[in-house]
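Lab notebook: predicted structure, single chain.

Context: the supervisor wants predicted structures on file for every construct in the current expression panel, including those that have not yet been purified. This is the next one on the list. No modifications to the sequence; it matches the entry in the shared construct table.
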Amino acid sequence: MTKVLYPGSFDPLHNGHLDIIEVAARHFDEVVVASVRNPQKTGGLFDLDDRQAMIVESVAHLPNVTVTSFASLTVDLAKELGCDFIVKGLRVVADFESELMMARMNHAVSGIDTLFIPAGASNSFLASNLLREIARFGGDVTEMVPPPVAKRLLEKYGS
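Prediction complete. Output recorded below exactly as produced.
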């Protein structure tokens, strides 16, 4: 039985993230989606509990996916949960450069390998920071996020 961890800030979760989760759910026995507050990313929109709730609602159709949050090193959570791999999504070449360095560091300190899943072409341009900005200024992002996220964005910004 293969268990993988898909970590991220998911603020907010978008269809590119959901695409990666669905691909992982097809290929692995168990997928754990873990949200974290990333201190390197500024301008947060939703708190950790809200993000976790949106993820839970958005992956309800996937019986082999569970959701958690964490405030530790990703590799420590992966070990604690008994995960075989860490899964990361890639949109563009620039993602690969930073994610590869992180994957090598994670392997060096833990022995856990990272597997990369490319985003689908229709979602390769999505980025949470861009969606936050568009939503803040009243733009419509409902086609770019799962319905539970669209609902909360509407509640927050009324557009």
